[in-house]
Design a protein that fits this description.
Layout lengths: L13 H10 L19 E7 L7 H10 L7 E7 L8 H17 L2
Parallel strand pairs: 1-2
């Protein structure tokens, strides 16, 4: 959108559009509570820089807020103030903590 390019051929080939429609989890029914939702029972950590100009939080906010991981899933969202399109030391620590708690401790 920022470059005023249409999301259609010839800029985006039909084959890529079909692939996205078929396989992109974000195109799936991510807010439902049934088996059509590929995120149910998953453990998801979302990290974003509040000052990211390349991929602003506003571009992902609706998706993340409506993402349903179900009762058995985990969703943590951390938006770090003062950080742009970077993987900050605090994000590294949060990733390590999340992996430790969600993958190593709980198996």
């Amino acid at each position: 959108k920022a470059h005023k390019l249409p999301f259609e051929p010839p800029h985006i080939p039909d084959s890529l559009l079909e692939l996205i429609k078929r396989d992109d989890p974000a195109a799936a029914n991510y807010s439902s509570g049934d088996d059509t939702n590929p995120f149910l029972d998953k453990r998801i950590l979302v990290l974003a820089g509040k000052d990211d100009k390349n991929v602003p939080w506003s571009a992902s906010k609706n998706f993340v807020e409506n993402l349903n991981v179900g009762a058995a899933g985990v969703k943590e969202v951390i938006i770090e103030p003062g950080v742009g399109h970077d993987y900050s030391p605090a994000m590294v620590r949060e990733t390590a903590r999340f992996l430790w708690q969600q993958a190593l401790l709980s198996g």
